[in-house]
Amino acid sequence: MDSYNLFVKRRKFFILFLALVLPISYLGLANGPEGGTSELAFDQSGAVIYRLTRSGLYKSTDGGDSWGERRGPINFSGSLMINPLNPNIMYSGTSYFGGPGGIAKSTDEGSTWRLSLPDSTSLVMHPIDPDILYATGYTFITRGLWKSTDAGETWNRFSLEGDSVSGLRLHPSQPQFMYVESSEGIRRSSDGGETWTPPGLLRGGYIEGLDPLDPLTLYITDWTDNRLNKTTDGGLTWRRLPQDPSEQYSKILTIDPTDTQIIYVGASVAGMHKSTDGGETWRQIAEFYGRRAHLHPSDPRTIYADARIGLAQSTDGGESWTIGTGGIVATAIRLMALAPGNPDWIYTTSEGWSRSTDGGKSWSPLRRRRDDPSFLSLAIDPDDPNILYGANGGVWKTTDGGDTWRRGLDRGSRVAVDPQDGRVLYAIQSNGPTSSDVYKSTDGGDNWVLVSTVGGQPGVLVVDPSDSRVVYAGGYRGCLSKSTDGGLSWNCTGLSGTYPITLTPDEQDPRTLYVVINPGGLFKSEDGGVRWNLLSTFAGGSLAIDAKDRTILYMGHSVTGIYKSINGGLTWTPRNQGLLNTRINQVAVSRTTGRIYLATGGAGVYVSDDQAETWQ
């Protein structure tokens, strides 16, 4: 039997990260956009709701109408579990961006956390004794099923050693019945994990729901066809349900404990669905992107669901819903674009579209529909901030600020607008493993022409800010290429065999270029890409140049935050004080106002007016 003790094992760097608590006075909430994904948990009475987001842990004592007592840590995402006898004790299945995941524990109602068990994605608490915990292990070192009898202080691997276990369910009224998802398929134990059904006996799949009144009734998503299946004999026989609310590979079912024929499923593409006949038939009860329904402990007709744009609540079994954010800013911003002709206009895409017309001080959610396109690239017309272009499986255009979209090109994963002429657009799309097609439009995206082929997969696509004939393109398995004739022909700039993450021209001197390559570092050219110098081996992601001082640069890192250089990129120092989330997806600087914008992976958009010394 293996044992695991938090204080003597590996991953000390991660433990230190989890133990780090930022004093509340240093934590600043961004102005928006409000919303964001979260995980919910109730105390035993249901009077208190906890909401775990990527910007911290929040608490509500009024049914979710308002949220207060924001607590650390940051960069968490995953499940949340409360000890029913002592709500100060909490557990979270966590994922540290760019690092290891595991089970974290708090003994002070979420103010501080420490790693309890690494490399585990599933945690179950014993329904009678909350000090008994079960967790899964899926890596070579932690493979198997783990058990703690002292509330997660120490762990023993007590079963299924050698199986990579990713999911675990414990029956709430008969806890000797257990089901696991493993590399050997779904396996069942009826004696608390001492013995298990032989490998391969039960069907392989994802465990989606366990009937709270019958330990032999189980719902899974079959690995082979991604459809819901049901067993009423503990997995000996299975039946595919005639209807499936979603074709997703995994769904999360919530079964009413007072009437197990009532089931809710959150399907992010198809919306929230409900069944009243044990999963035989389904009907849509909400169109929002709902991951999971949470039933109130004392009233199962009161339902909460993470709608991504906020918290949805129903008091009538899902027939009607209200959605509110409660002032929480936990949005994961995927893309951010500043309007070139209007310094106060900003667009973001996260769990929907949002727009600010006052430099990020306030935000308005735009129309959100399930069929809204999701983009890999976004560009704004230099003259009209209501005209945007997005690319992903085609190039789309809106002329009403994102309310409606139409596709003008059926290919394209990157799009760029000529800063001098908003009618001129470029798009790039892979045509194979080593090259990409380049398209051009001269009428605002109404018509497109295939003009050339460039080496490599699509990566950056940038039009020179002062010379419309100069275009840069580059990507994986190819060099960073340059065109001086409007995309008709291309030449390699000398940075080859790497992946250019970002290319940033100096708008005051467009022959000065910065390229961030990972792995590689930060490169600079002062002659339009003819010669390159390695400035630093530090490689983040997005890079921006200060509007007032060209020697000041900002670089966002997808894990460790925002960095500033005051010597043209030679050395870097972090500037994260006040940030609730250090996953920086994008950094941008307004050339007019000098304001710096950070698009974070879970705390909205932060702004700074003092060269990244403070954030709000």
Describe the secondary-structure layout:
Blueprint: E1 2-5, H1 12-19, E2 39-42, E3 49-53, E4 56-60, E5 68-71, E6 80-82, E7 90-95, E8 101-106, E9 114-118, E10 123-125, E11 133-137, E12 144-148, E13 154-159, E14 165-170, E15 178-182, E16 185-189, E17 205-210, E18 218-222, E19 228-231, E20 239-240, E21 252-255, E22 263-267, E23 271-275, E24 283-286, E25 293-295, E26 303-306, E27 311-314, E28 322-324, E29 335-338, E30 346-350, E31 352-356, E32 364-365, E33 377-380, E34 388-391, E35 395-398, E36 406-409, E37 414-418, E38 421-430, E39 435-441, E40 449-455, E41 460-463, E42 471-474, E43 481-483, E44 491-492, E45 500-506, E46 509-517, E47 521-525, E48 533-536, E49 543-545, E50 553-557, E51 561-565, E52 573-574, E53 584-589, E54 596-600, E55 605-608
In short:
By secondary structure, the chain is mostly beta strands. The chain contains 1 helix and 55 strands.
Tell me what the structure shows.
- The protein is mostly beta strands and 616 residues long.
- It contains one helix and 55 strands.
- The strands form 14 sheets. It has a five-stranded antiparallel sheet, with no helix packed on it. A four-stranded antiparallel sheet has the order 2-3-4-5, with no helix packed on it.
- A hairpin with a 6-residue loop joins strand 53 and strand 54 (596-600).
- The longest helix is centred in the first third of the chain and has 8 residues, at 12-19.
- The radius of gyration is 26 Å and the shape is elongated.
- Mean pLDDT is 86; it is low at 3-27.
